[in-house]
């Protein structure tokens, strides 16, 4: 392996893997100087992304999203609840993000990962402020009954860009959601199983037509790492642990900015860097939108 | 309620001694040393093994063998109604203990002293027989991690309803109230490694 400029350090005397472990920053900088990353991606390219819908058969809506090795499983369960007094004709969405110990060697049982509550908060803020879900659609009987939507996202493999994958899986799960049919039975809402649609004329479903949510501006995101004057899109966990300055940009499908998140870090971002990140995100939104459309139409064919 | 029809068919159309469809995959979790997904009918379980690695709690370190730890947890959406407390409840703690003791007996722990092997099992879909699916998935994940074992453990459940012994119960049959047993068997030495009797899972 002919490494250039190897005279001043040990790089010529040791193997690539050892160098990668012992001097990770120098290893990456050698690659960045050639505008490439160790997994042969260019600096602005994201990893291979796939979405598979309906991954959990027992849930009302579910999706499995993979960005590279990062895997997120999102599933939605709906329950009927009484709406609050302040918003009697609105339902409620509760988002929970879990990082079980299977996802990473750094997560210990009994001690939740540091990233988990941060990503959970970011997710619920992003989804509620993007206006994707119209809470009024979740109302069943005004003032008496409304849907409580529980979205649980499990990280099954944590390899960087956790927020991006989690948001993608959440959006895909909402696209896949089939609201269960319910009927009014003596003033109580009763869930109807799928097979009973033909029989029982007294148990008329209250919401027979309204089975899918209309999604407003769908948010998509891209996380970038800033290092010196390089911008790396879609980092792996190795890159995230070495170069710690992250910027996450969330745009909706009409390219409006939903959120911009930069939690500190050694590198201070000038306006030009932020604008570059937003430009990269714009490109990524087009790709993600296409992938989501393909996944949805793939489900409909079945 | 009739669980076995007069023609001898169960609620899902199986014969009494017929198992549900099995499906297994290894290597799903890139970050883990070993991982596996195991499906028995609608029950789907993912297991990941990390180890042998340094013991995190030095007071538990053993100088002559490896420490084996296991954690069982169910996803909130795995059962029909959403679960509030997916781990830390008594059932999960008991199943974690059962899986740990089952696997510990098969791992050659004396070959890896002062180290720790973590087995994490997550139930993604629960339709009866989660304990068995977890043991099967844990075995595959340990094999994928290359951890030396003296044997392979497999597991299945059985019960007795409508005067008929039934193999591989699903959730409806399991909650019917009849007796049931989950058996873990070591393949090569052909001895019953462990069994639990009673209305569980």
Automatic annotation (TrEMBL), chain A:
| The keyword Translocase appears for this protein | no
Among InterPro entries, the record links this protein to: ExoRNase_PH_dom1, ExoRNase_PH_dom2, ExoRNase_PH_dom2_sf, Exosome_comp_Rrp42_subfam, PNPase/RNase_PH_dom_sf, Ribosomal_Su5_D2-typ_SF, Rrp43
**Where is this gene product found?**
Cytoplasm; Nucleus, Nucleolus
Pfam families xref list: RNase_PH, RNase_PH_C
Q: Which UniProt keywords apply?
A: Cytoplasm, Exosome, Nucleus, RNA-binding, rRNA processing
Q: Does the keyword Ligase apply?
A: no
Q: Which residues form the Exoribonuclease phosphorolytic domain?
A: 46-180, 217-279
One GO biological-process annotation of the entry reads: U5 snRNA 3'-end processing
Q: Name one GO molecular function term.
A: mRNA 3'-UTR AU-rich region binding
Q: Which GO terms describe its cellular component?
A: cytoplasmic exosome (RNase complex); nuclear exosome (RNase complex); nucleolus
Q: Say which family it is in.
A: Belongs to the RNase PH family.
PANTHER family, alphabetically? EXOSOME COMPLEX COMPONENT RRP43, EXOSOME COMPLEX EXONUCLEASE RIBOSOMAL RNA PROCESSING PROTEIN
Q: What is this protein called?
A: Ribosomal RNA-processing protein 43
The lineage is: Eukaryota, Viridiplantae, Streptophyta, Embryophyta, Tracheophyta
TrEMBL record, chain B:
Top-level lineage group: Eukaryota
Q: What name appears for this protein in its UniProt entry?
A: Exosome complex component rrp41
């Amino acid at each position: 392996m002919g490494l250039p400029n190897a005279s001043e350090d040990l790089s010529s005397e040791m193997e690539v893997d050892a160098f990668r472990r012992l001097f990770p920053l120098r290893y990456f900088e050698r690659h960045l100087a050639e505008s490439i990353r160790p997994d042969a991606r260019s600096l602005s390219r994201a990893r291979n992304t796939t979405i598979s819908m309906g991954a959990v058969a027992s849930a009302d809506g579910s999706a499995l999203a993979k960005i590279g090795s990062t895997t997120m499983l999102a599933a939605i369960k709906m329950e009927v609840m009484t709406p609050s007094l302040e918003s009697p004709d609105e339902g409620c969405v509760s988002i929970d993000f879990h990082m079980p110990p299977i996802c990473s060697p750094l997560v210990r049982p009994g001690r939740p990962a540091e990233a988990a509550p941060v990503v959970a908060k970011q997710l619920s803020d992003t989804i509620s402020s993007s206006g994707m879900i119209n809470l009024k659609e979740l109302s069943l009987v005004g003032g008496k009954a409304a849907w409580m939507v529980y979205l649980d996202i499990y990280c099954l493999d944590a390899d960087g860009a956790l927020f991006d994958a989690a948001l993608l899986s959440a959006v895909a799960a909402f696209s896949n959601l089939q609201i269960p049919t319910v009927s009014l039975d003596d003033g109580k809402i009763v869930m109807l199983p799928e097979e009973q649609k033909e029989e029982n004329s007294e148990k008329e479903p209250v919401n027979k037509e309204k089975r899918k949510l209309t999604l407003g501006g769908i948010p998509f995101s891209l996380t970038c790492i800033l290092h010196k004057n390089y911008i790396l899109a879609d980092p792996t966990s190795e890159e995230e642990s070495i170069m710690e300055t992250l910027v996450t940009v969330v745009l909706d499908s009409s390219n409006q900015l939903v959120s911009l998140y930069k939690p500190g870090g050694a590198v201070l971002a000038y306006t030009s860097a932020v604008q570059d990140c937003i430009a990269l995100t714009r490109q990524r939104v087009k790709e993600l939108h296409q992938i989501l459309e393909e996944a949805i139409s793939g489900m409909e064919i079945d | 309620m009739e669980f076995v029809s007069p023609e001898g068919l169960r609620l899902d159309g199986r014969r009494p001694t017929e198992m549900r469809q099995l499906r297994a995959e290894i290597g799903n979790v890139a970050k883990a040393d070993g991982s596996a997904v195991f499906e028995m009918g609608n029950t789907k379980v993912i297991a990941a093994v990390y180890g042998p690695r340094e013991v995190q709690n030095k007071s538990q370190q053993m100088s002559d063998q490896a420490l084996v730890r296991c954690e069982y947890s169910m996803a909130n959406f795995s059962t029909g109604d959403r679960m509030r407390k997916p781990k830390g409840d008594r059932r999960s703690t008991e199943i974690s203990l059962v899986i740990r003791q089952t696997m510990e007996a098969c791992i050659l722990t004396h070959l890896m002293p002062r180290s720790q092997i973590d087995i994490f099992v997550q139930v993604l879909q629960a339709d009866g027989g989660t304990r068995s699916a977890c043991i099967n998935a844990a075995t595959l994940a340990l094999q994928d991690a290359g951890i030396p074992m003296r044997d392979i453990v497999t597991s299945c459940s059985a019960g007795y309803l409508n005067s008929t012994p039934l193999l591989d119960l699903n959730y409806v049959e399991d909650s019917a109230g009849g007796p049931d047993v989950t058996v873990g068997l070591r393949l090569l030495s052909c001895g019953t490694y462990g069994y639990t009797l009673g209305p569980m899972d």
